[in-house]
């Protein structure tokens, strides 16, 4: 069974979520504070983490920061319904997705399955055919590198890079990236794609010395290109 870590101080909600996930074929472990959550997330026992932002002591944002220092395990943030700031900060810190409380368990499971699919290599082991000189990208091995130097990416960033690479000179819209990379339609005013692109753009610029660029086509979308 796929093992999911839940980090949430609300024992009642965590219990109900554990029961629901068990019915969907998931094994779960729940911890109620940030320090224990960080330790558990670093253990490599879990396929994904469901992390509440609002917790006493270490907040979910602080926990995510510590997790991302050493691990690329997929993380879904649970945020307050009207907290756009928490969502954006969470994505900027490396969260793969978020869902607002109160949520429908079925929607959370759908988001969870989408994140797990992004983490799993293609069943046929197919490789991306498009290439940019200096950039190596293996979908099957889940590896990306610039001139031999590995690029450390979250699962979402890795798949976004693959989508942009495969598109070649074609501009990908935010709606297309949301459906292909996040596995869902983009909602109005949803900044998720913008934040993931910003994170990916920054990492590519650092590793390539600015040679790899994600070009913004205003009013349309994004395109990956390499400076000559």
Short description, anyone?
The protein is α/β, with parallel strands linked by helices and 228 residues long. It is built from eight helices and eleven strands. It folds into two domains: 2-119, Response regulator (Rossmann fold); 135-226, Winged helix-like DNA-binding domain superfamily/Winged helix DNA-binding domain (Arc Repressor Mutant, subunit A), CATH 1.10.10.10.
Please write out the topology.
Blueprint (H helix, E strand, L loop, with lengths): L1 E6 L3 H13 L2 E6 L2 H8 L6 E5 L7 H11 L4 E6 L3 H9 L4 E5 L3 H15 L15 E4 L4 E4 L2 E2 L4 H13 L4 E2 H9 L9 H17 L3 E6 L3 E6 L2
What does this molecule look like?
This protein is an alpha/beta fold. The protein folds into two domains: 2-119, Rossmann fold (3-Layer(aba) Sandwich), CATH 3.40.50; 135-226, Arc Repressor Mutant, subunit A. The chain has eight helices and eleven strands. The protein has helices at 11-23, 34-41, 60-70, 84-92, 105-119, 155-167, 174-182, 192-208, and strands at 2-7, 26-31, 48-52, 75-80, 97-101, 135-138, 143-146, 149-150, 172-173, 212-217, 221-226. The chain has a five-stranded parallel sheet, sandwiched between helices. It has a three-stranded antiparallel sheet with strand order 6-7-8, covered by helices on one side. α6 crosses α8. The longest helix has 17 residues, at 192-208. The radius of gyration is 18 Å and the shape is globular. The N and C termini lie far apart (47 Å).
